[in-house]
Amino acid sequence: MTDPSSAPVVDLVEVGPRDGLQNEARTLSVETRTALVERLVEGGVRRLEAVSFVRGDRVPQMADAEAVLAGLTPRDDVALIGLVLNRRGAERAAETICDELNIVLPVTDDFATRNQGVTVEQGLEHAAAAVEVARQAGKRASVTLAVAFGCPFQGQVPVAQVARVVERVADLGIDELAFADTIGVGVPSQVHALAELVRGDARVPGLRFHFHNTRNTGYANAWAATTLDLSGHGGRVSLDASVGGFGGCPFAPAATGNIATEDLLHLLRRSGVPVEGADVDALGSLVDTASWLSGELDSPVQALLGRAGDLLGGAAS
């Protein structure tokens, strides 16, 4: 068990309503997607990626983002994130109740051209424009570096290649930088190597990671993130997770689900790691939401907590 006095704080970011849905065969209605967000909030989630402002003809599961948000009641204690790829997406998000714009920027040309139709250099221009829109709208801005741990088309991605993109992004005036293991090939040593790129960099006040469990290393990577030197980031690290372990990228072959919110929270709770952005004592609600979502998607829950149960009343020894 981790000593709570020395443990970092993990800020949970629930990405189920976005990444959890975008690779599923069944497209949910606006009402069902709104209900998913509401269920997660009722279950204690306080920061979540609710929608994606992308083209509905390319990712139909993410169509009608404005309508999903319009069905929600704004809450001061809940931060809603909208994913964007460029200025146009940012302008759409800026007109909604989103509190934060998360700009996705791949670090390889191979993935960037297939995913967004641009090179990395062009993507950097789009990211700069989107950050500008967010700032003008008074909203937070974060950038997620996709395929930072490995690319399905290029293969290995050297840390030096990621570093060149980080250096450019850090000058955009962002609130948070995320490293994404888009296809689930990462290992803990990479978590440390990528974090080292921004350690002590005042231009990157917030650090975040996005892990998939494709090769069963997602939770090991999440644990590695809690062992980093986070003194330059306020002693905090943000971790993405998806209720039920749903998720994947439609432009990344064989990509499977994110690490599951309920499984991650069980790990952190039992280890004595402080968590914000979610209620670690309400895991039953998340398990119920995952089961409900499984029925709506006609897709099995990937998380394990619902099958094995949680020792909610037990000692975290």
From TrEMBL:
Residue ranges occupied by any Pyruvate carboxyltransferase domain in the UniProt entry: 10-284
Keyword list, A-Z: Lyase, Metal-binding
Record GO biological process: ketone body biosynthetic process; L-leucine catabolic process
Single GO MF annotation: hydroxymethylglutaryl-CoA lyase activity
SUPFAM superfamilies xref list: Aldolase
Pfam families (alphabetical): HMGL-like
CDD domains: DRE_TIM_HMGL
Domain of life: Bacteria
Keyword Metal-binding: yes
Cross-referenced PANTHER family: HYDROXYMETHYLGLUTARYL-COA LYASE
Similarity comment: Belongs to the HMG-CoA lyase family.
Annotated protein name in UniProt: Hydroxymethylglutaryl-CoA lyase
UniProt organism field: Nocardioides scoriae
Lineage: Bacteria, Bacillati, Actinomycetota, Actinomycetes, Propionibacteriales
